[in-house]
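A student in our group prepared the protein record below, which I am reviewing. What it holds is a sequence and that sequence's fold in token form. My question to you is simply how this chain folds and whether the tokens agree. Do not assume that whoever made the record got everything right. I have pasted the whole thing underneath without changing anything:
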Amino acid sequence: MEKIVAQGLLYDFYGALLTKHQQEIYEKAVYEDLSLSEIAAVSGISKQAVHDLIRRATAQMNEYEKRLHMIERHRKITEVIRTLQEAAAAPSGEKQLRDILLETAGRLERDLA
């Protein structure tokens, strides 16, 4: 299950950078959960070609993430947002809230640099 989530995230961020053909095959494998044989039959290519295409597309998107770190940044920003939401919902003193906001803003600034 975790692998499917990771593949979906990769595709959400970098799928648009794949060719249309790669996108179609990858979507059938990840989102429609079709087997390699089913994709091959529908697409008119061999099972091995489907396997190779998915492997290459995944490697390509992993390389994009390695260079661009978009998923990593998304996770960090999501964590900062969660911290801000928790701070806003918690009953705390004005100084404590100010300190949390300043520290969180600093984390966000560092993550975006």
